[in-house]
Amino acid sequence: MKRILPLLLLCITSTLFAQQPSEALRLSWTQSYGSARQQAIGGAMTSLGGDVSATFVNPAGLAFYRTGEFAGTPLYRLTKNKSDYFNRRETASENNIGMGTTGFVLGGDNYSRNSKIKGSAFGIAVNGSANFRQEVLYRGANNQNSFSQRFIEQLGRRADSIDAIEGFPFGASLAFRSRWIDTVGGSGGNGSFLLQSRAAALLGAGGLLQENQVQYRGGITEIALGGAVNINNKWMLGGGIGVPLLRSRRTTTFTEADATENTANKFDFATLEEEVTINGTGVLARLGVIYKPQEFWRLGLAFQTPTVFTIRDEATATVTANTEGAGGIRSASSEQILGSSSPFNYGMVTPYRVSGSISYVIREIQDVTRQRGFITADVEYVNYKAASFFADSEDETTNDDLEDFFNGLNADIDRAYKGAFNFRLGGELKFTKWMVRLGGAYFGNPFKNLQGEKGDRLNLTGGLGYRHKGQFIDLSYVHSMSNEVQLPYRLAAGSPTANVRGRVGTVLLTYGVKLY
Questions:
Q1: Which CATH number is 297's domain given?
Q2: CA gap 399, 6 in Å, rounded
């Protein structure tokens, strides 16, 4: 059992990393939700402060609080994805509710006149750091390659024995048992087997109709603590810790079928169904500073450490194939391992983040009710290739083979991704009790483009705010546009690509009240 477990983890993780932008990127290339005010100005908060969402961006911004405050942010999200695959377009949509920044800030300035410390604040809040919920669908006629060729590459074209094939219970073994792939004339010499694809034989005679349906569920919810001090009304210093809670489920159904009406070519269709569930808990830290060189200007710098996750991963896979002469054959991973899924424990480290910012506050004075607005800009660097996986040192199945696998996987991450810059810009104009806000954000491409992968995101934002007698309400809308290239499977000689254009509309409403 201990010998086979590393192979099982290899199959699960290779499934995750081969079918789409990897789990490492999916957990790093995230869009955090904040308060409605923060989202309306493009998410920029590194040098601005004075908002509970500063707990998740730059804790130094809490130092602008002089009183206590509670704020809650529900949101509604509408998602639509359009996909192009071999010149055919499909659309899938999904709507759901979520949560932006919700929490307390307790601030005060009860210090002596001679003290350099002019104020301090403490915040505790919960935020939706990522929302994975969406649907992706693409279909097309492929006359270039077959998913089944991936299984043959997994085995190196030649299998030493049936036992070697059975060592891949989430991939090649299922395809072999269902006859999606088969032997060529039995033995290939020296007791080994040459392998062929039943489906690939059709590529020169009509091709294959392919469809991929992917459903994502879950997200990351972070609980964070932050504290800050105000030194001489010039320096705001802050720090904090965060505990992100990860829940993710990905369900994939990939089907390829004979594009002709020939019932004697030994292939009708094959379907691979996969479900991967991930649960994890992480920890991270944030440090930040805001400096006011002059009364109207604010400069901010923030650093977020890598997040260290402990993860439990469970997966199931099923292949159903009809090779006409043999009829329909179904093979499931649960038939080859103990239990219906394969739980594994391992660790993951997401990239660090560094943000710099500048803000100009119109009529900057301590009485914020007399301020007339601001403009603020953030630039953030994220080193996506710094993401990595590691074996669980407390797992009894950990051995040298597993360590070697993770080392190779991390090397693949380093080759596939790169660092990228994200930009956020926003502003506010205040008219007594009412505020008008506009902003935008651009998230740079994290891919090195090894096989056509690329991606970016653009957010256009805006909103209104109202403040009166210690209460406030903010309403915002974020229109997010993303472009991404997904690979349903990877082959050494070239992989098919689907261009996915996502459109997400998010409505946020924050209600807040001064506590004292």
A1: 2.40.160.60
A2: 8
